[in-house]
Amino acid sequence: MPDAVSRPPYVPVDILTPDRDITHAHFRPGDQVVILKGVAGEELWGDAMTVVTPSWHTPTNEDGWRLRDPNGGERTYVTGHARYLVHLSRRCPDCLIYLRALEDYLLPKFADATEVTDCGWYSLTHLNQLVHIADARPNR
Questions:
Q1: Less Cβ crowding at N or C end of the chain, within 10 Å?
Q2: pLDDT computed for residue 84 by the predictor
Q3: Cα 46 from chain centroid (whole Å)
Q4: Residue (of 62, 54, 77, 55) closest to 18 by Cα position
């Protein structure tokens, strides 16, 4: 995968993640997950993380998960909502259905792209909480 990540000239609206019905209990400490953020060639691209412990997700006022980036860095630990996560460590039907739906929706929009493309759906708050643009609230 190339080191450079580009932004598309337009950001396709993520119509799937905000309505994803996945519970906090779907994930457990130690699970390997990915937060899908865009496209790399002909596949989805995102940040791989490890689920660490339950943590309140302030942007949604719901149960979230504390996640660890195995690459470390400035943002080694972040908190995210369960609907942002997809299992890497096991092939569960709920995550596979979501993954396939996101592939069917997103990949055709970037059929000619050759670089890694970040769709810009996520940002980090000052509390290191990952927030989807559909969940963003002012002053958080």
A1: N
A2: 97
A3: 6
A4: 62
- Report whether pLDDT(7) > 90: no
How far is CA 54 from each of CA 25, 72, 78, 81, 122, rounded to the nearest angstrom?
10, 19, 11, 10, 20
**Residues 6+ positions from 127 with CB-CB distance below 8 Å:** 58, 79
Q: Are 107 and 44 in contact (CB under 8 A)?
A: yes
**CA–CA distance, 27 with 87 (Å, rounded to integer):** 8
Q: Which residue has the tokens 């450079």?
A: 4
Helix, strand or coil, per DSSP, at residue 67: strand
C-alpha closest to that of 34 among 83, 106, 96, 86: 86
Tell me which residue of 117, 118, 116 sits closest to 2, measured CA to CA.
Answer: 116
pLDDT digit string, tens, across residues 80-128: 999 999 999 888 999 999 999 999 999 998 888 778 899 999 999 999 9
Here the tokens at position 56 are 């309140």
Q: What are phi and psi of 50, to 5 degrees?
A: -115, 130
User: How far does CA 37 lie from the centroid of its chain?
Assistant: 6
